[in-house]
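Table S2 (continued). Query chain:
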Amino acid sequence: MMNTESNPIQDRSAEADLMKRIAAGDQKSFAEFTEKYSALIFSTAFKVLNHHEDTEDVMNEVLATMWKKADTYHPKKGTLVTWICTTTRNRAIDRVRSVQRRCALYDRFEAKLEGDAPEASMTGREHLYLSDARHILKSAVVELSPEQREVIELAYFEGLTQKQIADRIESPLGTVKARIRRGVERLRHSINDRLNGEGNLLLSGVTE
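Corresponding output:
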């Protein structure tokens, strides 16, 4: 009778061989990896995110990471499945934190708008403006690169100075300044175009 039980040593060896081929740029091996593990990556990310589109984004990011960093897999440190699941969970958690920061920035922006136009005295036109502003901010922030969004959220919502941001994300101060400058200009341009020049007021304090 043929023994169909899995051999852990052979399995680990096969996984290491697969990742070596991927690290060498073997597209066929990566296609094999993708077919075999995409469902696992998706289900692992979905348990954290519970959102189909975000899960797909994370799955694609993890696959890209596996392609670029296949040479960092070491079978002695654990199975390939464990490495994949750990990487996926971490990436999904990063996505949750990113969404939370984006929502925090959005909430502060909204509070600023509402503070400028108290509910009791708002006209129908002002209600419409506020609704438009909410949508415009949300879409404008999402359009930023992750790096730009991170530093602007830290400056705008948490009130950190550029030096504090540099310390927080462990990046050179010049890099932080450049990201903030580019991000703010992109936001200001987008918001001003759609909110009749309100971008300068709404982004006040970010570049200080």
